[in-house]
Amino acid sequence: SSLAERGELKNKRVFIRADLNVPFNDKGEITEDTRIRASIPGIKLALDGGAAVMVNSHLGRPTEGEAVRAEDSLALVAEHLAMLLGQEVKLVQDWVDGVDIAPGQVVVLENCRVNVGEKSNCDELSQKMALLCDVYVNDAFGTAHRAQASTHGIAKYAPVACAGPLLEAELTALSVALENPKRPLVAIVGGSKVSTKLSVLETLADKVDQLIVGGGIANTFMLAEGMAIGKSLAEPAQIEQSVSVIQKMRSRGADVPIPEDVVVGKEFSADTPATTKAANEVAEDDMIFDIGPKTAATLAGILNNAGTIVWNGPVGVFEFDAFAGGTEAISKAIAESDAFSIAGGGDTLAAIAKFGVADKISYISTGGGAFLEFLEGKKLPSLEILERRYED
Ligand code: 3PG
Which of 48, 56, 278, 316 is a Cys-bridge partner for 326, taking CB atoms 3.0 to 4.6 Å apart? Predict the structure, then answer.
């Protein structure tokens, strides 16, 4: 932002690394465009500053060195950007050795992950990419946890390397939520596996006043509390770790609410009959697919009193309407709460969209893995390299 304010982008070639890795449906349509919309302010800032703008991203995980398959191409992303910007946006293939572009133009550089050396953060590739630009802008919070040529290596060699407005906004929001939060600080961590979120849970257990768990994670916590969960998704191998998270929280006087009631079905399908039960009445052939209404009301009360809320992961199978009640109640409680709320992760964004609460969440992060790694307290490599450049 400050480069633009100082007029230092005029006639400059600006390489913006965005995270435009958006979901597509079977018909090849973009189903959720938050990340594309979030990249617009950075692109506009560069355009308004008089720059020639190259926007790059990865999409999915294609094989390096192979021709770009339709499903790996940023072609539709470029079209969508053109629509949002109201100007032509060309897609450039084979861009590593040079890009033909003039000030005022925007191009999308095809999926960087087909370049050999992108994922290994190859120096030679990074140097070539740096030669394309006068200014490198990292505006890809969603990929901040990856040390790759377009997120890390290029930042070492570009004449100028800096953070874009989205990256700055993400870091500000996360710092507000985690570094000096208004209390009580409440975290909601849902999703299917404890194992993928264990370090997040362990880190949060030291910080938050209340830790709400959902989905398979809540089922594993129920096992850890000695409760029967029938055939529900859980990870018995993670019971010990779950016990230690619960104990750590309780020894600090912090709260880990365990569901009092649940909604169960007999098989994983949208039309399996849904039954609400007390949490201690789950039968051997039941599968827990959602929290029950009493639990939802208790959690809504907690969220209503919160000073700060951090949300990652749904508390039920909200894709199936019969099991969406818990996640809907959580979404609405966050929306109605006066707390500063921050949410991130693909499933969480889908729930926010489904329940129409996007406008009422204080900050919606574009990060999935990066959001989790930040919550874990890990150093994100693409930020570290920018900090090093700022120090030089
Ligand atoms: C994401 O979707 O979390 C980011 O775009 C990173 O994608 P990756 O896990 O394939 O690096």
Answer: 316
